[in-house]
Design goal:
By secondary structure, this protein is an all-beta fold. 0% of the residues lie in helices and 50% in strands. Strands 2, 4, 5, 6, 9, 10 and 11 form a seven-stranded mixed β-sheet that branches. A four-stranded antiparallel β-sheet has the order 1-3-8-7, with no helix packed on it.
Length: 124
């Protein structure tokens, strides 16, 4: 499974970006896809998750500002980021894993497959 992110960049506070992640294949009808981020010196944290049924979760720190979505036909995961803040600056990673039956998508970075990341920098 290959994951390729794009869409990162530098914006000012209050700006918007849309990240994209193309996946080479889905290995199961039940899966989770997620966005994580990691700033220098900090642990990788879960930003948003979506499962094969379209159920989503967003971290409290981004709720109401960020929105995860997917287009299965295009095999693409998105993260729409609005009202960006300097504390949102980080490397953003796309992740994929099969989902256990009836389980919710993990918020911890335990996913099996990862992209290389795309940098987001928000200046004040």
């Amino acid at each position: 499974v290959q994951l390729v992110e794009s869409g990162g960049g530098s914006v000012q506070t209050g700006g918007s970006l849309r990240l994209s992640c193309i996946i080479s294949e889905y290995t199961s009808d039940r899966y989770c896809m997620a966005w994580f981020r990691q700033a220098p010196g900090k642990e990788r944290e879960g930003v948003a998750m979506v499962d094969n049924s379209g159920n989503t979760k967003h971290a409290e720190s981004v709720a109401g500002r960020f929105s995860i979505s997917q287009d299965n036909q295009k095999k693409t995961l998105y993260l729409q980021m609005n009202s960006l803040k300097p504390e949102d600056s980080a490397m953003y990673y796309c992740a994929y894993d099969q989902r256990r039956f009836a389980a919710s998508c993990p918020v911890a970075p335990t996913y099996a497959y990862w992209g290389q990341g795309t940098q987001v920098t928000v200046s004040s």
